[in-house]
C-alpha cells in the first residue's frame, strides 16, 4: 500500500503565495516522476508541474515563472511553491507520483486526495 497526502492549500488573495507539500508513504522502493495537477470546477485535470528524480522539470505555460516544483527524495516529498497567485489558479491541486513499489518492483501511478487552493480577487 502506498499513499500520497497533500497539505498546504488554503485561501489567499491575488498576489499571495502558498507552498503545497505532498508526502508519499508505504512500501516504496523508489519514486520516479513526481508532479502536481489541478482541476478547476467544470474543467479537465491538467498538469501544473512535474519533476523527475534526475531533476528534469516540466511546467504548464500558465505557471512558468511563478511556480516552482522541488522534491526531497530522503523524505519522499514533493513541494510546489506558488507565488504571484491569480484567481485563475483556483482549483483542487493533486499530487501524483510514479512509485516503484517494494513488493514487486514495478512502477505504479498514485494520486493524492487533493488540496483546495482558492485565490480571491
Reconstruct the topology from this structure.
Elements: E1 2-7, E2 10-13, E3 18-26, E4 28-39, E5 46-51, E6 57-59, E7 67-72, E8 77-82, E9 91-101, E10 107-111, E11 115-120
Parallel strand pairs: 2-11
Antiparallel strand pairs: 1-3, 3-8, 4-5, 4-9, 5-6, 7-8, 9-10, 9-11
Q: What does the model show?
A:
The protein is mainly β. Helices cover 0% and strands 61% of the residues. The protein has strands at residues 2-7, 10-13, 18-26, 28-39, 46-51, 57-59, 67-72, 77-82, 91-101, 107-111, 115-120. The strands form 2 sheets. Strands 2, 4, 5, 6, 9, 10 and 11 form a 7-stranded mixed β-sheet that branches. A 4-stranded antiparallel β-sheet has the order 1-3-8-7, with no helix packed on it. The mean pLDDT is 96.
Label this structure with key terms.
mainly beta, 7-stranded mixed β-sheet, 121 residues, elongated, 61% strand
Distance between the termini: 41 Å
Which range does the strand content fall in? over 45%
| Integer average pLDDT | 96
User: Strand-and-helix sequence, N→C?
Assistant: EEEEEEEEEEE
Tell me the structural class: mainly beta
Amino acid at each position: 500500500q502506498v499513499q500520497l497526502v497533500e497539505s498546504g492549500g488554503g485561501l489567499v488573495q491575488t498576489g499571495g503565495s502558498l507552498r503545497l507539500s505532498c508526502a508519499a508513504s508505504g512500501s516504496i522502493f523508489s519514486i520516479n516522476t513526481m508532479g502536481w495537477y489541478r482541476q478547476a470546477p467544470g474543467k479537465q485535470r491538467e498538469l501544473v508541474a512535474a519533476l523527475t528524480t534526475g531533476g528534469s522539470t516540466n511546467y504548464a505555460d500558465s505557471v512558468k515563472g511563478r511556480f516552482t516544483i522541488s522534491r526531497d527524495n530522503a523524505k519522499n516529498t514533493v513541494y510546489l511553491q506558488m507565488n504571484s497567485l491569480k484567481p485563475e489558479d483556483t482549483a483542487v491541486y493533486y499530487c501524483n507520483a510514479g512509485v516503484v513499489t517494494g513488493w514487486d518492483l514495478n512502477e505504479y501511478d498514485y494520486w493524492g486526495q487533493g488540496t483546495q487552493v482558492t485565490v480571491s480577487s
